[in-house]
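Revision sheet: structure tokens.
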Amino acid sequence: MLDANSTGSVPLATQIPLTFLMSGLAFAIMLGNAVVILAFVVDKNLRLRSNYYFLNLAISDFFVGMISIPLYIPHTLFDWNFGSGLCIFWLITDYLLCTASVYNIVLISYDRYQSVLNAVS
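Predicted:
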């Protein structure tokens, strides 16, 4: 019988395409957020107060694609058990980065709300 938290064994015919799909997703996340970071660094006109929230969101999402997702793939698909230290590192960074992304989205929403509320007529 499977545990409540176990996903069971995934057939090899399914593991290979899922591995490539998830790796491609992680690469697309890193590439897209790297372009946002690069645009912010190169174009000085983008350096407005409200755009720093987008930069912060891009940085946190870049690290989600670089750290969290690549460690999640072998853990989920291949039942790879991390060592204690790597598991703790992965959990801490995953929770920290995902929480940072959510807080950044909240801050961006609040900033947009304030800009509409206090718009110059």
